[in-house]
Structure formats: C-alpha cells, structure tokens
Design a protein that fits this description.
This protein is an alpha+beta fold and 84 residues long. It has one domain. It is 18% helix and 30% strand. Strands 4-3-2-1-5 form a five-stranded antiparallel beta sheet, covered by helices on one side. The termini are far apart. The relative contact order is 0.20.
Length: 84
Amino acid sequence: MTSEHIWAWLQTKGKIFKVISDPERGIIEVINEKGEILIRKTNLSKRQVETVEKNFLHLIAKRLNGREPSTSSENRDAFDPMIS
C-alpha cells in the first residue's frame, strides 16, 4: 500500500493543478495541466509533509485518493511550527 496522496488544486481561470504528497518518502510535487512539474520538494520529514497537508492542502485542495482524515478534535496534533 502506498502512502502517496493525490490532490486537485483549482487555480484561477479554471486550471487544475495536481499535487502529490507522500509523507513516507518526504515528497511534495505540484504538476500543471500539461504534466510539467512546477514545484518539487524532496527530503522533507514525514512531519513536514503532514503539516503541509493539514494546514494547506486540506483547506485549498480536494483529495482524490484515499479517505479524508477525520475532523475530530481528538485526532488533532498540537504541534504548531510557529511556536518554538
């Protein structure tokens, strides 16, 4: 079973970018409609990828594979990267 998550990110003028995030491999990629990689981040920690998913992708994109995580407050991580 893969840990890869695929997201659809709606842009202005109706464009849709595909975002692939993989917490296990530490990768986030943004791909345009032509299949060109616009952004590729590698060597991220599992925590960093999960933080991007939680605080960015869940708000602006729709996950296309797998199940959406529960919104229960019991499952929320108290980690805040802005607090040292």
